[in-house]
Every structure is written in structure tokens, then in C-alpha cells.
Design a protein that fits this description.
By secondary structure, the chain is α+β, with helices and mostly antiparallel strands. The protein has helices at about 50-55, 65-75, 85-100, 210-225, 240-250; strands at about 5, 10, 15-30, 35-45, 100-110, 115-120, 120-130, 135-140, 145-160, 185-195, 255-260, 270, 275, 280, 290, 300-305. The strands form five sheets. An eight-stranded antiparallel beta sheet has the order 3-4-5-8-9-10-11-16, covered by helices on one side. Strands 1-2 form a two-stranded antiparallel ribbon. A hairpin with a 5-residue loop joins strand 3 and strand 4 (about 35-45).
Length: about 300
């Protein structure tokens, strides 16, 4: 995003910002039920502060301490609960509009997965527990109003004990892996998806729209991975399952233009126990597996819509 500037015979690209600004916001509901979020915010600004580099003149720089305090102040101003995406847009709009020197803002936020606690089957009014996967977003806003919103999920751990295989791959003198149509499949999904909103003026008015869409996308990813609860769905490879998951997201949500998924193959290897009497491999009906610490296979791909031609 940073444009190069030729100075003194050099090409200079610059940005500056503040990372790891942690903020929690609690909203007191009229019904006595509290809501809360915890965000880890990173800010990066593009600005016309070339004199800071050339002459040591800091008069055009927004201090990182100011950025940190702005996060707290803007969170305080949010009287109603809103999505992490909307908060990122709010911050970006502030920096781009409030400071004449700022030409662009990049806001990255990771939302910690605090979930409402249930006691005796009832939702607790002010109790929360920490979940697993995290909701992420990156908002890029230019001074001309051009907007790019990318949301995602980190650490979505999925595992199925059957309905998975891997066979027919390239085999040569270095290959030791046998073909199989029966194995465990486990992964930890890191996914991002880009929304099709070109400016802040065209965003949905619902302040929790992106929160609901995040939950919807996550459900589609999991439903595609596991299949029907009774019969499941067969996975011939992680690559095939990854493609089906990305395609299902694009097919389900018209406001998402592209999806990128990273799905390392977390291995569970069957433990072979030899029979002392017959010196043969004992095959258990219910297998015992060794979770391996070896490097995971790395599988990733992106899928995007092809723009329609007029």
C-alpha cells in the first residue's frame, strides 16, 4: 500500500504505527445481561511526514502514544456493541479524516474468543469463558475513500476419525507412505475472506453484521469439512476438502469475493503392536494412534470470483 517517494536519489517507502494495543469493552444491557469483547489492535499509518526522515522534523508525525490512546477513546465512545470489523473501520476513518497528513490507515485486530458461560443450562448474565479460535480482521482505508475489509479465523482445530484417505499420489524410490482409504483427518484452519465493500458508505447498517457473518462462514467451513452428522463426507485429500470448503463459502455469501485457507495436515499415525507369539502385526478394531510431533504437511490455496464480463 505504501507508495515509494524518490528522495536524494533513493526510493523511500515508509509507514509507522502502534502494535499490541489491548482493549476490553463491556456493555451493560438494559435487561441486566452484560456483553464484552477483548481486542488486540495494531495500527499502521501512511502519512506525509517525509521531513521526519530527511530533517528530523517530527511536526507531521502522529505519535504512537496518541494512536494507543485513540483506541481507548474510540472504544469508550461506542455506546452500542459493534463488530470488530466496524470498530476497525471506525478507527481507520478517524485517522484518515482527523489528520491532514495521513493518507491511509491499516488496522489489524484480533478478537479474543470470550464466550458467554452457561450454568445449569442457563446463560450467565455476566460470566464468560475463553474459547479456542480467534476472529481476525484487517481494514485498509485510503484518503480517497477506497476501502478493503478482510476478515478471518485463526486456530480453528478440526478432526474426524474416519471418512478420509490419501492414495494414487506420485510414488518413487523415496516414497514410504502407503495408499489408504481409512485414516484420521485433523487440521488447524487459518482462513481469511475478503468482503466486497468498496467504500465505508456502502457497509451494512447492522453493527453486528460482520460478527454474524463470521459465525456463518465458520459454520459453512465446518459443515463442509465434516458432512452430514450421520454419514459424514469422504475426503480423498486435504487439498480436495480445502477446495470444497472455500467454494462453499463463496457459493453461500454473495458479499465475499475471495477466500484463502491454510490447512496443515496434523498427523495421527496408527500404532503397530507386534504379537510376541506369532511375531505378526495385531490389528485392533478400535485403533490406537500416535499423535506425531513431526512437521505438518502444509496445504494452502486461495479461491476468488471471476468478474463477470459485460
Amino acid at each position: 500500500m505504501a507508495r515509494g517517494l524518490e528522495v536524494e536519489g533513493f526510493n523511500l517507502k515508509q509507514r509507522h504505527g502502534k502494535a499490541r494495543v489491548r482493549v476490553a469493552r463491556v456493555w451493560k444491557g438494559k435487561d441486566g445481561c452484560d456483553s464484552m469483547v477483548e481486542w488486540n489492535v495494531s495500527i499502521s499509518l501512511l502519512s506525509k511526514c517525509i521531513n521526519a526522515y530527511l530533517d528530523g522534523d517530527n511536526s507531521d508525525i502522529v505519535a504512537t502514544d496518541t494512536m494507543k490512546n485513540t483506541v481507548y477513546a474510540k472504544a469508550k465512545e461506542c455506546s452500542e456493541q459493534l463488530s470488530v470489523e466496524d470498530f476497525a473501520v471506525l478507527l481507520a476513518k478517524h485517522f484518515v479524516s482527523f489528520y491532514r497528513q495521513v493518507t491511509g490507515a491499516i488496522i489489524n485486530i484480533v478478537e479474543k474468543p470470550w464466550e458467554r458461560l452457561h450454568v445449569a443450562g442457563q446463560p450467565h448474565e455476566h460470566g464468560f469463558k475463553l474459547g479456542s479460535e480467534k476472529h481476525t480482521t484487517e481494514v485498509i482505508l485510503h484518503e480517497n475513500g477506497a476501502l478493503m475489509i478482510t476478515s478471518g479465523v485463526q486456530g480453528l482445530a478440526l478432526l474426524k476419525t474416519t471418512k478420509s484417505g490419501f492414495e494414487g499420489f506420485i510414488r518413487d524410490k523415496y516414497t514410504a507412505l502407503p495408499d489408504t482409504r481409512e485414516r484420521m483427518l485433523a487440521t488447524e484452519v487459518t482462513g481469511t475472506w475478503r468482503y466486497w465493500y468498496p467504500s465505508a458508505f456502502k457497509l451494512p447498517e447492522n453493527p453486528l453484521y460482520f460478527t454474524e457473518r463470521y459465525l456463518d462462514v465458520k459454520k459453512v467451513l465446518m459443515d463442509t469439512f465434516f458432512g452430514h452428522p450421520k454419514v459424514g463426507v469422504y475426503s480423498p485429500s486435504v487439498q480436495s476438502t480445502l477446495y470444497d470448503m472455500a467454494k462453499a463459502v463463496l457459493s453461500s455469501f454473495s458479499d465475499i469475493s475471495s477466500v484463502e485457507l491454510k490447512m496443515p495436515n496434523i498427523h495421527f499415525l496408527p500404532v503397530n503392536l507386534s504379537n510376541r507369539d506369532k511375531n505378526t502385526i495385531v490389528k485392533f478394531k478400535d485403533d490406537v494412534y500416535l499423535p506425531t510431533d513431526e512437521p505438518h504437511g502444509s496445504i494452502e490455496a486461495s479461491l476468488s470470483r471471476i468478474p463477470s464480463r459485460m
